[in-house]
Design a protein that fits this description.
heterodimer; A: mainly beta; four-stranded antiparallel β-sheet; 0% helix; 53% strand; globular; B: mainly beta
Chain lengths: 116, 115
């Protein structure tokens, strides 16, 4: 069975600094997709970034990048130049099968607080 | 930009009552999902739906739950006899197999409170 582990329940970062949110995963499927979602206090789930298991390069989307280390089964989210609006819960999720419509399995999340 | 919509945003119901949560997926999407998030916990998969039938369901999705796509645009989740532990945020999502990510697009959620 697939599993996502986020070991940091909460993180603090100063504005304009970079922060790394950890995510490790476990799956027996050789093909999978990894996602990061942001959930602000208003509750909606906002897609941030995606990494496919066969992607050779780390994914980047603006200030977000994904540090994908396949052998270590980790997919850490790096947020550069943090902003106050980045304060939110962040969830890592995995889908077994890279080119499928199967379900997402989520981690327990990390609450990020950006301070002045 | 097209988006998934959900109604109502907040539903309060008494234990034992039936509730129907409604979702309008993105119009050209073919895959539909319900997830729930108990307050302060992680998001959990309930059910996926494709081609007018359930394609996968979790152990949470027992006989008290059902899904339907009644008219080609709406996608509903029914809970027949609500329990206190059904109190949660319920997210609808939709997706297709276009693009490289096969991303699921989430709606804003319906907060269900069972009293």
């Amino acid at each position: 069975a697939q599993k996502i582990t986020q070991t940091q329940p909460g993180m603090f970062v100063q504005e304009k600094e970079a922060v790394t949110l950890d995510c490790t995963y476990d799956t027996s499927d050789p093909s999978y997709g990894l996602f990061w979602y942001k959930q602000p206090s208003s509750g909606e789930m906002i897609f941030l970034i995606y990494q496919g298991s066969y992607d050779q390069q780390n994914a980047t989307e603006g200030r977000y990048s994904l540090n994908f280390q396949k052998a270590r089964k980790s997919a850490n989210l790096v947020i550069s130049a943090s902003q106050l609006g980045d304060s939110a819960m962040y969830f890592c999720a995995m889908r077994e099968g890279e080119y499928t419509a199967s379900k997402l399995t989520f981690g327990t999340g990390t609450r990020l607080q950006v301070t002045l | 930009e097209p988006e998934v919509t959900q109604t109502p945003s907040h539903q309060v119901t008494q234990m034992g009552q039936e509730v129907i949560l409604r979702c309008v997926p993105i119009s050209n999407h073919l895959y539909f999902y319900w997830y729930r998030q108990i307050l302060g916990q992680k998001v959990e998969f309930l059910v996926s739906f494709y081609n007018n039938e359930i394609s996968e369901k979790s152990e949470i999705f027992d006989d008290q739950f059902s899904v339907e796509r009644p008219d080609g645009s709406n996608f509903t989740l029914k809970i027949r006899s609500t329990k206190l532990e059904d109190s949660a945020m319920y997210f609808c999502a939709s997706g297709d197999l276009a693009g490289a990510r096969y991303e699921q697009y989430f709606g804003p959620g319906t907060r269900l409170t069972v009293t």
